[in-house]
Amino acid sequence: MKTKLIQIIYDMRTQPVIAWVTVIGTALSIFLIMTVVMMQQVGIMSFAPESHRDRMLYGMFLHKQSLENENDNRSAGLSYESAKKLYGELDGVEEISYQYTDLDRYDAKGTTGGKFTVDTRQTDDGFWRVFDHKLLDGRYYDADEVAAKRRVAVLSEATARKLFGGENAVGQHFELDHNDYEVIGVVANSSILASMAYGEVFVPADYDKEWTTGMGPFMAAMLIKEGVKFDDIRRQVKTRYAEYDSEIKSEGMKTVYHESPFDQEVINTGHRGSNITPDTSSSRMMRYIIYAILLIVPAINLSSMLHSRLRRRVSEIGVRRAFGCTRARIITDIVAENLVVTVVGGMIGFALGIVFAQCYDGLYTDPTGTAARPALSMLLNWRIIGIAFGSCFILNIISAAVPAWQAGRLNPVEAINAK
Amino acid sequence: MSLIELNGISKVYRTKEIETTALENVNLSVEQGEFLSIMGPSGCGKSTLLNIIGLLDKPTEGTVRLIDTDCNRLGDNAMSHFRNTNLGFVFQSFHLIPSLDVASNVELPLAYRGGMSAAERRERVDEVLERLGISHRKKHFPTQLSGGQCQRVAIARAIVGRPSIVLADEPTGNLDSKMGAEVMSLLHSLNADDGITIVMVTHNEAQAQQTDRIVRFFDGRVIS
Amino acid sequence: MKRKLIQQMRNEWRSNLWMTVELVIVGVVIWGVFTVFASIAHLHQPPVGVDFNDIYFGNVGVVSKNASTYKEYPDTVHSIYTDLETLIANLRTNPYVENVGTGNNAIPYNFNYNGMSLNTYVADTVQAYIGNQRMMDADMVRTLRLTGFNGETSEQLAEMVSEGKWLISTYDRSYYVNDPAKWVGKEAWIGRDTTDVVQIGVLINGIRRADYEPVFNGTLVMSYPWRVWFPNELAVRVKPGKGREFLASVQADDLEFGNVYVSNLQSIENRKTIAHRDVITLVRNLSACAAFVLIAVFLGFLGSFWYRTQQRIPELALRKVNGATDTDLFRRSISEGLILLCVATPFIVGIAALLSDLPDDLGLTLPAWLMWSMIPVTLVLLALMICGGIWLPARKAMKINPAAALKDQ
User: Residue A321: closest CA among chain B residues belongs to which residue?
Assistant: First the structure.
């Protein structure tokens, strides 16, 4: 191994331009792949308080269409009633939370005096069971308090400090959107990247809020039991839609089903159209095309660089063959040697990707467009690292395949005498 | 039984336009322990013959038997294995690998042989380097060595796998006469002390005269 | 010389083939990216019917009755409506304020689509107009400076709105109405209820939801029945360029009166930025992708030609000895790269032709000239990258000292 490394370094030093092109090309490729992968992964990987993203389904939106005129459409979020009708008590659902789809930005004022805007999430009590916020002090609100529309609030740690300074927040009162609220609990801060669970202030949702019949600010966030297929849930929801159809027939309306409830992949596309069926396959396709371009274009370069490097080592290959190296060994040696170079470039690219994600916050945005930086611990997970190395490996294989194969096919006599 | 037995060897190179006969009906047998020189003018086919004996090239016609093995029947991998265990090569222009140090260059044949630990390999390399008097150059790279030293390293590489046959293609061709003489005496000692069979292609009449037998070539044919 | 160059390129066919393949892939990617950019630029059509310079807006909220901060009204004269009127009147006293209007879904860039259908008889057949409903009071019409399709001023439009008339706009595509101009002055009923009748004022310029809306279906400005519906939006027009002074001068007290308050007072630019973030993100990501593949071309040509120059040092030295000038050698290297680009061009064009149906499948209508005009842009960029990549090796070739090079040989 050490011999191999010395040989690689020697080889690179004799052809510095080609070596630089190889390393920079690899690093750039892996850096961009990492950036795309991280952006995608941060959107679908599980982390507290959304620790079970792989088991989450979100029932969102209601789309009604006139029975007479298909251009007469109404679509919006759900009301509490319709959310319950469409998603309540489905088989295979472990916990369900009825919550407002969007955060509300409200003014808040505490004992520290100043007024500032807080991201307010309005939920029922199920929210605390679906998502795993970390309770630092006090308690969560319960079903009775939600039903009674009690003005109680759970604050994030940072908001509690902002409202009350160093004082113990639980039991204190503060003004939220011109209403008086009592603090009953404090939870750990959550990342804005947890787009469904994040909040600075959590208050019981007003379940009477309704825009028009069946429509309102609600959605249903469901934690599915382990082993239950998402399609089983969707099949039940379809039946509920049919039931709902018969209910609104008298209004001259019917529903249009858009494959709700949505999984995390749909949520990650930032899907917010209440009257369109989310299209994950085209965004997935786009991503694969980007990966392919990010791999193939540099691979062509790396391949010609490797080819150039090998052309200078033809006689070496001949000598090795003379001393009993098989064709297969020549090929695997070249691929392995190239892998070392690719991995070095890949590590540079990976490091760049991490640094970039930490320094530049325009990459990750929540659906409202607020920028966020993912924590380092989120990026350094086995999956992202695995994909990075997997990409290096693929890049290596496609760039080394042709030159290595050609080298393996060299006639030893001609190779030895080649200059 | 001869160690090397060539029967009716012909080699014809074909390109689109021309057909060149490099060897024509060559019969040759070399006994165990023999030191043979092949002589002849440039382009007479002596190197081609050496390559065929070395299993680096295949004859168009004829059979090659080395150490009781019908080499015509060997597949590519089997040939590689055969070369690795039974043959050693010394080239005119040394063909040391510039990116490897002396020890790694010498170790090369052992690297392609299974069943030897790194320590064993290193031990064998040290032993050979010691014997050829170049162990002090072990960590040096080929570019830091003189021509004579390079050829010693090349010979070390050729014998480190303990082959029965060493094939030398003008081993002194790139050396001055003093260094050439040193290399020749080294080859003679390998032949005499270790019983290695040596087939050497040379232009040097004097060096050829020192060997057991001279085969002369002209236009692809053995003339004496 | 030319023939020899091509002969030499044939000898390097394998490497040249790969570089051509790379040029084709990169060319197609660049073409695709620039076509998207061009189509975005082509799509760019701000909500023309309004003037958003110097506009600030906020949400209007009401303190709920069971809140502890709720202030009881002493009589029936006072209500949240009078509170709002006072709040607006107070705002108007701000020296930087020109006008204040209220409405509901009046301000674009929020992606709401409140469809509403109106029906009327046009030449004895029932026609329906379906548009995005925007509720405004007369002052909102003035504040946003709505304009009439036939040149009516916003003052005239505000007048109509205050009379309770509704305004409909032109559109890109509609389902039923062939000529909305025929609706002007007519009575129309809302939805299916023929008794719920409104008067159509005039035709206005449409208000798009954002600057990059592919298809615009029309706007329906609904006059706002004051004191019947409570608005949820408030817009302020400040004196030209006085936005910062305005924000600095507004006190928390100015935004509250009685049980009514205004929150999130901000420039329309904020909302515009958020609304266009997906477009910005797309442009950014595609730019990164394009830059990357262009760098790849640069690096590829740099590496390959560096190697070739090294291989050809004796040859180049010989040429120099025989009288070739530095510029000759330089030109020779560059033309080698550009010949590869010429070979790649038909393939790029061919693939582009195959892909040109794609926007249709995605529901985008892109004019053909727009797609084709991106081909020369692509070729120029590729040529620049090729020249950039070859530049260093070519310079190295020029610097060869023929005597030394030939001696080495």
Answer: B80
The residue in chain C having the minimum alpha-carbon distance to the alpha carbon of residue A302 is: C300
CATH class of B4-222: alpha beta
pLDDT in tens, chain A (419 residues): 677 788 788 877 878 888 888 888 889 888 888 888 888 888 888 888 999 999 999 999 998 888 877 777 778 889 999 999 999 899 999 999 999 988 888 888 888 877 788 889 999 999 999 999 999 999 999 999 998 888 999 999 999 999 998 889 999 999 887 788 999 999 999 888 888 999 999 999 988 888 778 888 999 999 999 999 999 999 999 999 999 999 888 888 889 998 889 999 888 877 767 777 888 787 788 888 888 888 888 888 888 888 888 888 888 899 999 988 999 999 998 998 889 888 998 899 999 988 888 887 666 665 555 667 777 877 888 888 888 889 889 989 988 998 999 899 888 888 888 76
**Cβ contact, residue pair B83, A316, below 8 Å:** no
Say whether both A148 and A297 belong to one domain. Answer: no
A180 with C69: Cβ contact below 8 A: yes
Contact between A55 and A224 under an 8 Å Cβ cutoff? The reply is yes
Distance, first Cα to last Cα, chain C: 24
**Closest CA of chain C from A344, distance in Å:** 18
* Burial zone of B105 (CB within 10 Å; 0-12 exposed, 13-18 middle, 19+ buried): buried
Chains B and C touch (3+ CB pairs under 8 A): no
CB-based contact B125:B153 (threshold 8 Å): no
Record the tokens describing residue A196, joined without a space. Answer: 């469904």
Q: Where are the domains of chain C?
A: 2-44+277-408, 55-267
Question: Is C302 close to A272, i.e. CB distance below 8 A?
Answer: no
Residues A90, A132: one domain?
yes
Instruction: Measure the CA–CA gap between A65 and A84, rounded to whole angstroms.
Output: 20
- Alpha carbon of A236 to those of A88, A89, A91, A187, C7: distances in Å? 11, 10, 8, 35, 70
A330 & A222 share domain:
no
Residue owning tokens 């070519």: C394
Residues of the domain holding A19 = 2-47+281-417
How far does the CA of residue C224 sit from the closest CA of chain A (Å)? 18
CB contact (8 A) between residue C300 and residue A21: yes
Tell whether the torsion through CA atoms of C122, C128, C132 and C137 is positive or negative. Answer: positive
Q: Is B219 on the interface with A (CB under 8 A)?
A: no
CB contact (8 A) between residue A315 and residue B95: yes
Nearest Cα residue in chain B from A412: B56
DSSP string, C214-256: SS---EEEEE--TTTS--SEEEEEESTT-HHHHHHH--GGGGE
Let me know whether A98 and A224 are in one domain: yes
A43 with A72, same domain: the answer is no
Nearest beta carbon to residue B76 from set A10, A319, A327 = A327
Q: Which residues of A touch C299 (CB under 8 A)?
A: 21, 24-25, 301
Tell whether A401 is covered by a domain: yes
- What are the chain A neighbours of B81 within 8 Å (beta carbons)? 324, 326
A73 with C15: Cβ contact below 8 A: no
Task: Please tell me the distance from the alpha carbon of residue A317 to that of residue A334, in angstroms, as a whole number.
Answer: 10
Distance CA A412, CA B78 (A): 15
- CA dist A195 and A44 (Å) reads 11
Q: Which residues in chain C have their CB less than 8 angstroms from residue A107's CB?
A: 263
Mark whether A186 and A90 lie in a shared domain.
yes
Q: The tokens of A328 are what?
A: 């297969």
Are A121 and A201 in contact by the 8 Å Cβ rule? The answer is: yes
Spatial neighbors of C367 by CB under 8 A, at least 6 apart, are: C42
- CB spacing of B51 vs A321 below 8 angstroms: no
Find the closest chain A residue to C25 by CA distance: A297
